[in-house]
Amino acid sequence: MYRTHTNGELRLAHAGQEVTLCGWVQRSRDLGGMTFVDLRDRYGITQVVFNMETDAGLCAKARELGREYVIEVKGKVTERSSKNPKLPTGDIEIAASSLRVLNAAKTPPFTIEEHSDGGDELRMKYRYLDLRRDCVRKNLELRHRLGIEIRKYMDEAGFMEIETPFLVKSTPEGARDFVVPSRMNPGEFYALPQSPQQYKQLLMVAGMDRYFQIVRCFRDEDLRADRQPEFTQLDCEMAFVEQEDVLQMFEGLMRHLFKVEKGVDLPPFPRMGWQTAMDKYGSDKPDLRFGMEFTALKEVFPQGKFSVFDQSEWIGGIRVPGAAGYTRKQTDELTDFVKRPQVGANGLVYLKCLPEGGFKSSVDKFFSPAELEAVAQACGAKGGDLILILAGKAARTKVALGQLRLEMGSRLGLRDPFDYKVLWVVDFPLLEWDEEAGRYFAMHHPFTAPKPEDEPMLETEPGKVRANAYDMVINGVEVGGGSIRIHDHDLQRRMFNVLGFSNEEAQRQFGFLMNAFEYGAPPHGGLAFGFDRLCALFGGQDSIRDYIAFPKNNAGRDTMSESPSPISQAQLDELFLRTTAGEKGKSL
Ligand code: ASP
Hints:
Blueprint: E1 18-31, E2 34-41, E3 44-51, H1 56-63, E4 70-79, E5 92-103, H2 120-125, H3 127-130, H4 134-156, E6 160-161, E7 179-181, E8 189-191, H5 197-205, E9 210-218, E10 230-239, H6 243-262, E11 271-273, H7 274-281, E12 295-296, H8 307-310, E13 314-320, H9 328-339, E14 349-353, E15 359-361, H10 369-379, E16 386-392, H11 394-411, E17 422-426, E18 431-434, E19 439-442, E20 469-474, E21 477-484, H12 489-498, H13 503-516, E22 524-530, H14 531-539, H15 569-574, H16 581-587
Parallel strand pairs: 3-5, 6-9, 11-17
Antiparallel strand pairs: 1-2, 1-4, 2-3, 4-5, 7-8, 9-10, 10-22, 12-13, 13-16, 14-15, 14-16, 17-20, 18-19, 20-21, 21-22
Helix pairs in contact: 4-6, 4-14, 7-11, 12-13
Bound molecules: aspartic acid.
């Protein structure tokens, strides 16, 4: 038997017991006649003491131990003279009577401590060492607990976990597919699923009624800072439901998770229409931890005084409480912020409401104090507040002001990661016009149902049709989204037509789903949550990477296993692939 206890287990009540422990040497210290070793495993750290006086040979052996050696120690649990209140095992230590080195270890390339000296890339290359760190392991423990709680909740609510295939048909729409060549079908390819969307709908046709799956999904997108090419969804679908049923069910799940994991009773989730979210926050995932809602100012500023405003379709402002003292340098910084290509505004107008009364503004020379007063009033500002104003094309300017709002929320410390504000955003547009492609795309996906009352406009005014689609948003992050689906064969065909697919093309690409709809499809709907993101939110961190055991880096690479990598000519031949990719790989 390698061990009698773990390194997180022993307490004062065990004093006097003979135990055997195993683990990794976190650190060792020689203090004259004593050598102390901190022994670590997944469960904690226990101090082991080797005494020169009782066993000089053993003590000498202990002095040879390097960091991260794997050892087995036998000894007696004894009360410590100087206790360590920071460790759960800090009241005791093990007076060692034997030591066995199970495996020596090279010196790790970075310190395996809460605050490691290893940079991101180095820790990713040695991810198995990074995972030994408490803080990283705790993230995986959180992920595990959430997964278990979700499965329990879903099971109790009558959902069945059903696996769907990973080798699927490549379909257009959505993101780019990862494809897998088929050896047995030369020249043909599978795709890895971007989500089990069509399969879960088929499961509803199959009468499974309530389906869920914690499932890996794959999207070959350019990676932004916090995207992974493979990620995990909690994917769900229900038959015989309306939007309200879905919202109730998953609001229940989320409240349950917050209750068990955080001990927090969340209030009922408010609902906000998409248009309202865009008008008030410039985002379809508003962060409600703080106010600073937009005030529309086009009607407030008089015409004919400032040509930039005259030419702007929309003018909007946010009131930043208590920030009238911002210096020139600070307002310049904000101007630079909004002018960055990612934000894309042309400039920033500010209006400082001075605590002693009066204003100081970058548009002083265009507007009278009374006119500025009217603006301040419209924004509900008082002395000491700062009003930040953007102007331009309506849709773009709202988004830019939304980004400035978030920036100000961060600067003012109003975005506490452990203050959770959850809401549903509903009534999304069904379609989105793509200027470049010159056609409409489904905003969610092509299986999303229009609101019944908007359906007659599908062909005549497609841009105005709203969808029975919804997103769950927490602290400005879209954690989940879904819709009521089209279950009528004809309506699905009309939808594909609006998206520019001929009947034949739609049949070729999506025939299996459309055909299924001819065999008795129940009304159905569902949603999917980003599970990695949810874990990060619960952990109060921004990056999903820290919640995935073996993530890819920003270039989509696994630097530990060095994938992707070239494959041999023999493999290429077997797959009938004639590409230059192999050569390119070699020359790199
Ligand atoms: N399959 C959708 C997605 O991945 C979610 C859903 O509609 O259920 O975004």
